[in-house]
Amino acid sequence: MGKDGSLGLILFIIVLYGAWFCELGFSGTVTYDSKALIIDGRKRILQSGSIHYPRATPEYYFEGRFDLVKFVKTVQEAGLFVHLRIGPYACAEWNYGGFPLWLHFIPGIQFRTTNGPYQAEMKRFLAKIVNLMKEENLFASQGGPIILAQVENEYGDVEWAYGIGGVLYAKWAAETALSLNTSVPWVMCSQKDAPDPVINTCNGFYCDQFIPNSPSKPKMWTENYPGWFTSFGYPVPYRPVEDLAFAVARFFEKGGTFQNYYMYFGGTNFGRTAGGPMIATTYDYDAPIDEYGFIRQPKWGHLRDLHMAIKQCEEYLVNADPTHESLGVNLEADVYYRTPDDCAAFLANYDSALDANVTFNGKSYFLPAWSVSILPDCKNVILNTAKVVAQKSVGDATFSESEFSLSKSSWSWLEADEKKDAFVVIQSLGHAALVFLNKKVLAFGYGNHDVASFIISEKISFEKGNNTLDIISMMIGVQNYGPWFDIWRAGLYSVTLVDLKDSKQDISSNEWTYQVGSEGESLGLDRIDVANSSLWTHGSELPTNQSLIWYKSTFVAPEGKGPLSLNLASMGKGEAWVNGQSIGRYWSSYLSPSTGCTDNCDYRGSYNAQKCQKKCGQPSQILYHVPRAWVKPGENLVVLHEELGGDPLKISVVTRTGQEVCGHVSEDDPIPVDLWKPNSDSSSQSPQLRLTCDQGWKISAVRFASFGNTKGDCGGFSQGSCHIDVSSIVEQVCIGKQKCWVPVSTAKLGNPCPGVTKSLAIEALCTA
């Protein structure tokens, strides 16, 4: 909260619960026991996904510091529950961990420990948020959607650094939260010493082995990472959906009843909201919904099927403890009995290399390595985590490009003549620094996400007489993790001059002057009302590859409703604005290492953020999201502040114009999970190949459709020796529709080779 009573923190983490598990407009109690959350007297299995709405497109900026109340009401209207993770520390790769900067300047304050000034502000903030929700009847007992609240965030990871102050603070934070009487349970994630009745929860890539700190608390997973964040200078991490699904299934197999994806939609770090060090502008996170709001397949579809399969087991999971059976080496079954003859089972192969055939209840089952099969009736497998039958996307989305040129501003430079040689050594605790000698660029140094500090050592030539050494020290996002953090690291550096005779002069303590930000910002060069100012220089010879230069131009947005991006591959490092709105920092000249990437990452075996990577030897990001809500008909202003040097003439505007989708389903695959019914004979039903375009798009062309022993994978299908072209059948069912379902059966498609197991393969194009 600001001193005027306004909201100071701009980031809240909101968790939404899958609509197919929730009811709209309920009013009642939320409690818990050792198995699960209990909502209106019913124990529930809950799947959820995180969204940070300030990272969403501006249509969902709810005004007035983003209006948390309006957002929660919007969630309720969609029939979803809410887990309100208040913090106030959020981390989330958000600048300063979500804290407002003014908090830093309160005399005597120390964050996240037993400290009077900080605790007073934190208590005031918690009360403010809780009261906002109460006043609008948004807690579950009031008929609202909020069923959980969280105080602090992953404090257990840094508590040790605060000593006894940290232990006392964690206890105080829990007690303060409970005193607010929300009527819903509170959680503390990654907090082993969370006092009763606060629930301690797990964050990580895997949480199947997590055990709550009290037998009275349910097993909950508040952050399951479907990918990882992107950092400048690093490859882009991704997580195969087979491994993600394996982790989720194992968690529920081992007694978990609440699971949340962090993130389900990641979005964009607009402006300078990205934390640090050096978090990129994209916060895509390889999430089931991508940065632009499009469904990422097959991740979204396979997880949807998984959730429905687990939902079929709900009454067993929340009312019984598992009976464990060994099925062999790295092979096991966990069985949940409702009665001796009524059960649900999870069959797991947690070997990272070897497939296996196992016998369970007298029947044989095939288990691929690193997979779980779900049997909601202890007989029929309705899903195996390694078998993906959901549709896939073929490569990246299809883009078209619209070129535009940029105008320039001018900068003055001094030329040196009479010189004296020496070396300058700069040791910096910031993230990057640009060094000038007599107003000319001398050097640029930078660290990386893991080790942000760096050293610059450069040979220099002095002019006769006075010389000036200017240093622009940069923080590319900051993250307030613990007591060792200092926001002013950017200003901490030592400067040493060494002449050719090896004599040294430390000039760190010499008289220095400084300013925060750039002169262009103080002049408002990013603003629309300054676009026609005489400050800008216009001419036919646009300067390129110059440091600390501002550029501006205009563009007409491509027609349609597809998302827009600026392709800034030709630029160095800086920030970009469209119509006065910052679309974020860019750093195209910072290439990732050339090794360590793979096109086909093996999902088997434990995942970490370095296991599966792409874009080695390339910039981590070249496309920068321009929300449609920020553009207008006709000309739109684009402004760039280039720090290192680039070629703005090669910048382009790109839009998504189409998406290729595909599917490959066998006759032997299970029927769709949503068609499975307990105590019913599914043998009379056929598997289905289902294709769905994003909302507002339709299938406009079928590019491949074959039934037989098709070879290859999506994007590279080819006809096998047994083949029938079923394009006409698929076109009749699918063309002009947002979604279509094609039965995989000889009765529908024909039988080109009797006695051979056949599969249906389709590639189609979705367009707006």
Detailed description of the structure:
This protein has 768 residues and is mostly beta strands. It is 12% helix and 32% strand. The protein is built from nine helices and 42 strands. An eight-stranded mixed β-barrel has the order 1-5-12-10-9-8-7-6. Strands 20, 21, 31, 35, 37, 39, 40 and 42 form an eight-stranded antiparallel sheet that branches. Helix 4 runs parallel beside helix 5. The longest helix has 20 residues, at 116-135. The protein is globular, with a radius of gyration of 29 Å. The relative contact order is 0.10.
Fraction in helix: 10-25%
Rg calc: 29 Å
* N-to-C CA distance: 43 Å
Mean pLDDT: 87
- Overall, the morphology is globular
**How much of the residues is beta strand, in percent?**
25-35%
Which structural category do the helix and sheet elements fall into? mainly beta
Q: What topology, given as strand order, has the largest sheet?
A: 1-5-12-10-9-8-7-6
Q: Note poorly predicted spans.
A: 1-25, 403-419, 500-504, 510-514
Give me the number of helical elements.
9
Total strands: the figure is 42
- Main beta-sheet annotation: 8 strands, mixed, barrel
